[in-house]
Amino acid sequence: MTLRLIPTRQQWNSWSMPSKYSVIGVILAVVGLVLTVALSLISEGTKPHAQNSRFPAGSVQAIETSGDHIVATMENGATWSKAFGAPVSQVLVEDLDGDHFNEVLVGLGSSGEDHSSVLLLSSVGEQVWKYQQPPDYPYSGASSGRFRVVRLGISQTGEGLRVVVLFNDAHWYQSCLVTLNPLGERAGILWHPGHLHDLLVQGPMLFVAGVNNDLGATAIGLEGQGHPGVLFAVDSDDVYGQAPPYFGGVERNTDLAWYSVLSRRDVRFSKLESGRNGGVAAWTSCGLVIQVSAGGNITGSQVTDSYSCDRKLALLKVNE
């Protein structure tokens, strides 16, 4: 026997009006059920990755910091918080493992039990790993034994992803550029005789700005007073040893792409931004923005409203 949802013309004409209404109601109910199921399937197919059993609230979208803790806001508006044993100095939200969910990198300050540390948290705030920079200084003189994380970055290298960290000693002039592998293990460290202030990552290339205390004591012909501002570039796979003028107790880094010093001691680099053709736009404390090529050559400059220095400010290469 065959069951039919739609009656034949002969059946329809033989039915009473109430029967016709009943059949129409059944047909509409079935159509509604089919549409509901279809729309549900379509919706499931187009839902963002946030609807996942691992992270039902979705990926981290924003981070607020206050003292020693952070508050993360998820895609669906939910929040979670986490406290640390040191003040939070830097935060970076990034998908590090390619699962479409943002992890959270947290850099900490120089006080408390978690001083000198970088932590990786999952999208729900679980600690994945922790790296704490040891006080293995290559330079003589006083040191605090503690560091503050001043910048975080992510670099793609021939050997995979690298977490890039700038550490400054809490009280003295030593600093270091550190790269970590995806497991939080140190892949490289480059010591620097002066605090580092900013970091720009362009693929595998790292552009770093800071000051050089040792170079300030030896450089001849620089105008002004103080420790000179420096800018250098190094490939993420070449992070090792020490930077010029090599007064420390570790090997010299002979693979720096270039290392340059500003021609005036009283001028510093205040900010680094992406420049032209893979180069860097280096903002200075005197309001001049210097365009520097990937090879370390000045290709142009612009002045800002706070401009107060000679536009002939030069970058002098040290390691040539």
Could you please describe the fold and organization of this structure?
This protein has 320 residues and is mainly beta. Helix content is 13%, strand content 40%. It folds into two domains: 59-132, Thrombin, subunit H, CATH 2.40.10; 150-317, Lipocalin (Beta Barrel). The strands form five sheets. The chain has a five-stranded antiparallel beta sheet, with no helix packed on it. Strands 4-5-6-7 form a four-stranded antiparallel beta sheet, with no helix packed on it. A hairpin with a 5-residue loop joins strand 6 (117-121) and strand 7. The N and C termini lie far apart (94 Å).
SSE blueprint and pairings:
Layout: H1 9-14, H2 17-46, E1 60-66, E2 69-74, E3 79-83, E4 88-94, E5 103-108, E6 117-121, E7 127-132, E8 147-157, E9 160-169, E10 174-180, E11 186-193, E12 196-202, E13 205-211, H3 213-218, E14 229-235, E15 258-262, E16 269-274, E17 280-284, E18 288-292, E19 298-303, E20 315-317
Antiparallel strand pairs: 1-2, 2-3, 4-5, 5-6, 6-7, 8-9, 9-10, 10-11, 12-13, 13-14, 14-15, 15-20, 16-17, 17-18, 18-19
